[in-house]
Amino acid sequence: MGDSKVHQLRSKSSRALSRSVSGTRQAWPVGYRRSSIPGSSEYDAAPVDPSHAADAVPRPFLLGVAGGTCSGKTTVAERLCEMIGGDRIALIKLDSYYVDMPHVPLDVRAKANYDHPDSFDWELLNSHMRSLAAGQPIEVPVYDYAAYERTGKVTRIGRCDVVVVEGILVLYEPSIRELFDLKVYVDADADLRLIRRLQRDVSERGRSPQSIIDQYLATVRPSHLQFIEPSKRHADVIFPEGGRNEPALEVLLARVRELLSVAGRGDGA
Questions:
Q1: What is the pTM of this model?
Q2: Which of 65, 83, 111, 232 counts the most CB atoms within 10 A of its CB?
Q3: Where are the alpha helices (DSSP H) in 112-241?
Q4: Cβ 250 vs Cβ 84: under 8 Å
C-alpha cells in the first residue's frame, strides 16, 4: 500500500491453531474449568422463516478487529464507527462474552487467565453473529471488569449495515473467524502495549501497578505469544503502529464504504 503503511496479508487455508496450553496457564484454576459450569449449554441462532426470504434485508458486512492487549484495536474499531456514523454500524466487544461464573469466589475469578481462549463464550458470540447476519436483533451482555462477571444488563443491537467485532482473540476461533468478510489485526510493540495497559487498568479499573505487572507476566504475555500473536496469520490486513495509524484507518474506511456501495447500501458518508 506504499505510504498507507498497511500490510496486506492473504488469509491462509490452515484450520484451527493448536489449542495446546503447554507452557501457558489454563484459563481457570483446577476445579473451575469451563466444562464444569452448572447449566452451561450451547446457543443456536434463531431460525429464519423462509417465507420472508424475499423481504430479507441485505446481510451486514462483518468486520473482525484483533490484536494484543492495548494495541489500539479498540481505537480502530471506535474510530471506524464514528466515521461511518449513525445506526448503520454496530460495535461488539469480545470482552462482553467472557464466560459468566458468578458461583465462583471473587478471589478465584480474579486469578483466572482472561487472555486464554477458554475464557470466552464462543457459542453465544457465534449465535449472535449469525442472528445479526440474518437480520435479527441480539442482546449483548454487559461485563463488569471489577467484579469479573456479567452485570445482568444487556445492550440491544438491531439491524445495521456493518458489524465490527473487536477483541484480542477475534481471529483465533475458527467458527467466528469464518464469518468475517474482512479480518484486521492491529499490531504494536510489546513495551508500548504494557505501558498503555498499566495506565488503563490503574485509571479505569482500579488496579494496582504491581497486580497489573504480575498478571501480565503470569497470563497476558504467555497467552499473547501462544494464541494472539499467531492469529495474525489469518488477517487480511495488518495495521502497524496500532490505532494511531491514520493512513491505515483511511484505507480501511475507504474499503468498507466501497463494499457498502457495491451492496447498494450507500457510501457510508
A1: 0.77
A2: 65
A3: 122-133, 174-177, 190-204, 209-215, 221-223
A4: no
